What we know:
The structure is a single chain. The chain has helices at about 20-30, 60-65, 95, 115-120, 210-220, 235-240, 245-250, 260-265, 290-295, and strands at about 1-5, 40-45, 50-55, 85, 110, 135-140, 145-150, 150-160, 190-195, 200-205, 225, 270-275, 300, 305-310. The protein is built from nine helices and 14 strands. By secondary structure, the chain is an alpha/beta fold. The chain is globular, with a radius of gyration of 18 Å. The strands form two sheets. A seven-stranded mixed beta sheet has the order 6-5-4-3-2-1-14. It has a seven-stranded mixed beta sheet with strand order 7-8-9-10-11-12-13. α3 (about 95) links the parallel β4 (about 85) and β5 (about 110). Zinc ion binds near residues 21 and 280.
Amino acid sequence: MLIKVLGSAAGGGFPQINCNCRNCADARAGKPGLQSRTQSSLAVSSDGAAWILLNASPDLRQQVDATPELAPPAEAGARGSPIKAVVLTNGDVDHLAGLLSLREGFALTIYATGRVLATLAANRIFDVLDPRLVERVQLPIATPVGLACGGASLGLSLEAFPVPGKVALYLEDASAGPGLGTQAGDTIGLRISEPGSGAAFLYIPGCAAVDQALADRLRNAPLVFFDGTLYDDEEMISQGLSSKTGQRMGHISMLGAEGSIAAFRGLGVERRIFVHINNSNPVLRRDSSERRAVEEAGWEVAFDGMEIRL
Length: 310
Ligand SMILES: [Zn+2]
């Protein structure tokens, strides 16, 4: 199984279009130790020929351009794409807007929960994905499904499981109390496995907390890509970027007793990689003490183009 990190940033990317925070300003100025990043997405393949996108970011065209494996294969003739499926982990803009860049008329399968499929159905702009070519399949929870396109197996199996989270920003319902209308399963994690080899990993780009059920899922996993949005729950506020904490945005932070670094301790996860990193996060700076702390805790910080073979 081959995994490529297409985009390692959270929504907005890095640098973000309207942001003058220290990280964004320094990245824009080309200062050393800062690498620009596109928005959150992974690509995974069993055979290196057929690819599955885990989330479709607004930067998809740029990501495909930067990834030779995703170019139209010569044997496809005049037109074709190795992208055969897209799996969505929630309804966030940074995870589904890239679907609009897949409208050029080729067959693929979209996998998502019922609520996310309902969001696509309610927004007619997604009808540009020709239903004769693009199948929408509802993901069951906690039941592995074999990924396929047009009836042909893609060689990988996927299991979706709910994780603590928050409904997408544009779907928040302020009248619905502190949960803002969030329902269980609005954010899912994915376990991708290759039946042929037994290789497997978890992909959890959005997560508000590590509860007991998630800890049980994580235990002894060989590889986990995990929500690295913020270093500190209050960093958006302290940097004057927003009035929201990480918790309010539905994202666990790296730091602190309730943070992801502490939560993973003792779970025996062999390889831990932060993805979905917000532009405010100090770990984006190669020379920061926060980056050093994360690495000393045994974590890696994903970058665009990162490649892993399992
Ligand atoms: Zn910024």
